[in-house]
Amino acid sequence: MSESDMSLRDRLVDVGVALVAAEGAGALTLREIARRAGVSHGAPRRHFPTHLELLSAIARRGFTELAVRAGEARGDKRAAPGAQVAALARVYLEFARDNQGMYELMFRHDLLESGHLRLRETSLPLFGLLADLVGQARPGADAWIVAGALWANLHGIAQLWAWGSLRLATGADDFAPLLRAALDAHLGPEAGR
C-alpha cells in the first residue's frame, strides 16, 4: 500500500472518528465520510470494500483509546485487584458517558461478529484483563462469569445513564453510587477498594 493510500485510509478513519463524536453512530455513512474527507463517494471502497469494514476501523480506534485509558487507570498495578477493577469500571463508564456515539458503535453486535479487521482482538483483551482482576479479587469464583455479569451491569448503567433513565429513576446526579453498588454486588462490599 502506497503512502498516499495509507494516508487516505487513515484520513477516512479520522473523519469517521470525528463524525461519530459530533453526530453519533447513525451519521457514519460511506457517502458522508467521503464527502467530509474530500474524496469521491466511491473512494472509501478502495480501502474498505464494505461499510462494516470502515465502521470496524473506526470502532477499533475507540477500543484502542479505551485500552489506553484502562492502562492509565490501573497506574503502577500495585493497587489491590478490587481497586483496579473499580478504576477500570469508572474509566469504562466515563468513556461511555463522554463518547456516546463511539461507545454505541464499539458494541454493535454486527461489527464484533463480522470479524472485520479482527475487532475482537482489540476488544477481548480488555475483558480478559477485567476477568483476571476479578479472579484475583474473588478467588474461587468463576472469574469469567463474574466479570461478564459485572460488565453487563456496567454496560446497562452506561446505556441507561445515556438515555437519562437512571437519573430519572434514582434521582442520582452522578453514576458513582450506581458504580459502587455494582462493584459491591459482584465483588463483595468494598472488596479491596
**Share of helical residues:** over 70%
Low-confidence stretches: none
Q: How many beta-strand runs?
A: 0
Report the sheet with the most strands, covering strand number, pairing sense and barrel closure. Answer: none
What is the CA–CA distance across the termini?
49 Å
The total of helices stands at 11
Tell me the overall shape. elongated
Mean pLDDT across all amino acids: 90
Element order: H for helix, E for strand:
HHHHHHHHHHH
> What is the gyration radius calculated from CA atoms?
19 Å
% residues in beta strands: under 5%
- What oligomeric arrangement do these chains adopt? single chain
Content-based structural category:
mainly alpha
Would you write up a description of this structure?
Helix content is 75%, strand content 0%. With 193 residues, it is mainly α. Helix 5 runs antiparallel to helix 8 (120-137), helix 8 (120-137) packs across helix 9 (143-163) and helix 9 runs antiparallel to helix 11. The longest helix has 24 residues, at 51-74. The N and C termini lie far apart (49 Å).
